[in-house]
Amino acid sequence: MKPRTVEAMRLLSNIGLACLLMAGYLFAQPSQAGSSEGQGRKKALIISNAAYQWLATPAKHVGAQALGAALRELNFQVTEEFDVTSSSLEQAIRRFQSGLREGDVCLVYYSGYVIQDNSASYLVMTDYNTEATGDNKASLYLLLRLQQTLARPALAIRMFVIDGGWSEPRLAGRRTGVATESSAGLPPNVWMFVSTSPDDVPTKAGAAALFTQTFVAALKKPGLDLTDLATEVIRDVRKASNGTQTPRVVDIGAPKFYFRDPLKVTQVRENQDTLEYVYIEPGSFLMGCVPGSEKCAEDERPQHQVAITHGFWLGKTEVTEDAFERFAGITHFKYQPPRHTTNAGTRGSYPVVSVGWDVAQKYCQWAGGRLPTEAEWEYAARGGVQNQTYPFPDLESASNKANIFHTKGLDVYEELAPVKMFDPNSFGLYDMAGNVWEWVTDFYNATSYRQCAAPCKDPKGPDGGPKGAHVVRGGSWASDAREHLRISYRGKESKDSNVIGFRCMLPDTEGVRAHFRN
């Protein structure tokens, strides 16, 4: 190996070590919810190679530029280096390294050719000469430096995003893409995201940078930690490439990190019915079937813009048996709690079921409000995330996220589960998916979405429905996750059931606030 290559590797090792030390300081502190609390500056180095001297352009700089813009929006200080040669690489690293300091968050992105040699991976600089007869490795960047840097004993988080799965005729005989890197001996708290897997079909030079485009799109969604973000990107890239491209992650116990913090719950109050309610701010969202979603029914179409013009309070959980029994005692309503197969937690913490729409509405009126409209419910269920088919990126993880049909993973419940057994959504609302279906105010009408003229503001639904049926939302313990946990799915029922419960909506008025207990 030529001296210049050794020097470049030393520089790259130094920058990796700097990131390790800084992230080690950061994540030795008490854990914070979200990416912006308790952290130092966020620094990113973007390297995009397109104008190769002896190779075709793998992908234009558009993807890297979009990533730079997205990271700046997320308060990263971004350094961009385009069409890097072996010599300019050294200068770029020196400049970037000189601006790093203790407590910073570090992300390094590379777009360009990647080749393999004896199970090692090399990032290809733009002055790589395919016609050279001598040692041409001075124009390659050895990814082994990542392992060498990570082997240093320090707590850390470093994010490396590598888009390099293109093929080129003049690289015939060279395996392209990143080799499977060994994680043996690597310290914890490391995250690397690579655009392809070893057995993927190489992408022809000049094709769109699908991985980078999908990664940038995922950065726009709040509340995705690194695991959820990678899961969503992998799913969408596989779908768009018809299964020919599968990004992969190297995650050595990386701590929780959000590019975009979960939407913060501004206020939570205990109401006179003893339940907690979350304040939902006004806003707009896309309601209905997400374009491209599988299994969407016609009554979920068309997707349409809806404005919720007034803030409101929504039950943090479904109404529990304890709360409903208190209502029944005060109002002298006759109620016999059903028996449940599962017995996890006390009975009073289960959501109340076998309550018809009219009784549910009476409870909500007694509590100071009403059932939410279908639009209010979906707005809250989406948690501020647009165009997401399911309430979590990976449907395969549904059994760890909700109480649905079959017991698996964290879902150990044959039937009902107590409320708050699974993680809340970005608005802090529990069980918006699974456990029990939830009544909403709206009568069911299969064509109601076509009847709300733009701009659709605070829709109340139709005046009536077939056989008096009302809409139910969210799925239950007896639901098929792929079918019923779709956020836009609309169920309809005209009578009570042991799979239907409800939660209440309270208007944000002085009268309502006067009955809050805190």
Describe the structure.
With 518 residues, the chain is an alpha/beta fold. It has two domains: 3-252, Rossmann fold (3-Layer(aba) Sandwich); 268-514, paralog of FGE (formylglycine-generating enzyme). The chain is 24% helix and 19% strand. It contains eleven helices and 22 strands. The chain has helices spanning 3-28, 62-73, 86-98, 144-150, 210-219, 226-240, 321-331, 357-367, 374-382, 481-484, 510-514, and strands at 42-48, 76-82, 105-111, 114-117, 120-124, 140-142, 158-163, 166-167, 190-194, 203-204, 248-252, 268-270, 276-280, 283-287, 304-308, 312-315, 437-443, 456-457, 470-473, 491-493, 500-501, 505-507. The strands form six sheets. It has a six-stranded mixed sheet, with helices on both faces. Strands 12-13-16-22 form a four-stranded antiparallel sheet, with no helix packed on it. The chain has a four-stranded mixed sheet with strand order 20-19-17-21. Strand 12 (268-270) and strand 13 form a beta hairpin. Helix 1 packs across helix 4 (144-150). The radius of gyration is 27 Å and the shape is elongated. Residues 1-38, 149-155 and 341-345 have low confidence and may be disordered.
